[in-house]
Protein: Polyphenol oxidase family protein
Organism: Carboxydichorda subterranea
Amino acid sequence: MRAVVRGFTDRNGGVSEGPFRSLNLSWSTGDDPGRVQQNRRRAARLVGWPEDLPVHTARQVHGRDVVRVTSSRGPERGSPGGRPASPDRWSDAGTGDILVITRPGQAAAVLVADCAPVLLWEPSGKAAVAAHAGWRGLAAGVVQAAVRAACEAASCSPEQLQARVGPAIRACCYRVGGEVIRAVGRAVAGDGPQDDTGWVRREGESLFLDVPEAVRAALIRSGVPPERCGLDGRCTACHPELFYSYRRDGPRTGRMAGIIGILEG
Ligand SMILES: [Zn+2]
């Protein structure tokens, strides 16, 4: 029997300070690497993943490329490849916004601050996916590509998948241009109506995008049953005490994670 372990982190419970307070999981925005490593171990523990097992991440580029994790081991200390030892056991598995795992002992994480972390899994643990979806990814079809990748890896149909969408920026806060709504709409609604869809809010001339609702629309359109698409529901920009938000705080802020792993039960 396999078990799927998963969760979303918020900004609390870590050791980082200043704009990165406190559970920042990325060192790409200027935080102290030692603190990030401590935070990563804590994040694994928080979602129930054994901290001595690897967590695979990817260089996220707001696209729809798939990274298939092939190793269940993290980077090795002093490996001939010359990759630096990473005591936090997190390692880079490639470039893309969709990580696919199929073996016990593997975990995948996407890093976010306003974009949606999306977790998909086949309930018996044949495969699991972590995907990173902001408006650019949505417009590129990242959700549909994630569903396809999960089904391929698990040899199942979309109706059999479970999906959870973590905290992300919502229509209360995320003002965007009409071109963003059109680009997202083409990908998640096809030629269907783009108003009253749950993922667009109009206020006078202004338009607001609801990222988690757009992800849910794309999941449903891809064949995942609505009752299997769970939304966290909280807006990252609305809660400075709970979440990092790129839109609210600018580039010097932290990153949270959606993490999913497979364990042999
Ligand atoms: Zn909000």
Summary: The chain has one domain: 2-77+84-168+224-264.
